[in-house]
């Protein structure tokens, strides 16, 4: 038995087993099956391969570098600064050009400050006092401009005053101008040059049009008619975010310039080009909100004829531009192609499984199809070696009861009907 079992197992290794298919003549289920097949096939071809391009290997580890240059001049005449010409070195911070740059559009100027004692600004809550004890010496004023000297300065007969401080005096007291100082910055331009590289495919590109015309960058402006020009008018950039340049120039704001690269490297390199998106990032919906606007302070230092150090304090309002770059590249690869084709073939089996459920569970004649699809097989009964054992056996012309004491010689029976009784 052991050898026979091993032999049968060995032979079964080379057997091929196939499924039994039942053809159901049901038009409704057949139509449902074809619709499912067409839907799955359309999904695979249109969405998976044409839209998502899942036959490609992708690289999202974009390496990028940004260079920015702002150009434009304007002239102002104010009581604090007098007549003054503003160029790039005056209103752009930082001047070297990075992916983040700031353009000044409005100013509060406090000239000729020197280190001495003076009264703190009345707009500082922590500086208010009624007597000298309210101004402990040596303690800085919270959100103020200097350190308390211990004196409470009151104007005339007023009971309430402000603490005297040691600071750069006179302190800043002027409010923000209602009209932007550099409103003409709307016509300034910024040149944004972007270098990118996808390391997996060793592919590099820039957003500047590949041309030998040296006058191209001096005359072009980015827009619908010239989308390959990297020179942007500041007023246009702000308007593309849905804001007004003159309004945002008063208290400042933050503008995001997003450059997106989506490159299909199965096509020509010239078809890999950037797309630009412009958004306002600060709180644009509430003009009086504390979170809206953008400003900071900086100073320019000098000395007078007596050698005393002086400075001019600037509180600058303006527009901060953040240039952000992202993207991906794709190229045909046999591995994702095979994986997605295999997934599609497996997905086709879902249609058969669903139609089987409908056929054997949800239609009127489901029991009929269920009986055709599934068969019940039962094991046969044990065969008896001696069917005549314990029974009477008769031979022609001879009738003798056979009992356990009677035996039949099979070799003799094969020759005739001879037998012996013991």
UniProtKB/TrEMBL annotation:
Subcellular location per UniProt equals: Cell membrane; Membrane
Fetch the Gene3D superfamilies from UniProt: atp-gated p2x4 ion channel, atp-gated p2x4 ion channel domain
Q: What is its main location?
A: membrane
Note one Pfam family from the annotation. P2X_receptor
Q: Any keyword Nucleotidyltransferase? A: no
Q: Which cysteines are joined by disulfide bonds?
A: 118-169, 129-152, 135-163, 220-229, 263-272
Q: Where are the transmembrane segments?
A: 31-50, 341-363
Q: Name one GO molecular function term.
A: extracellularly ATP-gated monoatomic cation channel activity
Which GO BP terms, alphabetically? calcium ion transmembrane transport; response to ATP
The protein's UniProt keywords, in alphabetical order, are: ATP-binding, Cell membrane, Disulfide bond, Glycoprotein, Ion channel, Ion transport, Ligand-gated ion channel, Membrane, Nucleotide-binding, Receptor, Transmembrane, Transmembrane helix, Transport
Recorded topology in the membrane: Multi-pass membrane protein
- Keyword Translocase attached: no
Give the record's family classification. Belongs to the P2X receptor family.
Name of this protein = P2X purinoceptor
Question: Which species does this protein come from?
Answer: Tursiops truncatus (Atlantic bottle-nosed dolphin)
State the gene name recorded for this protein.
P2RX5
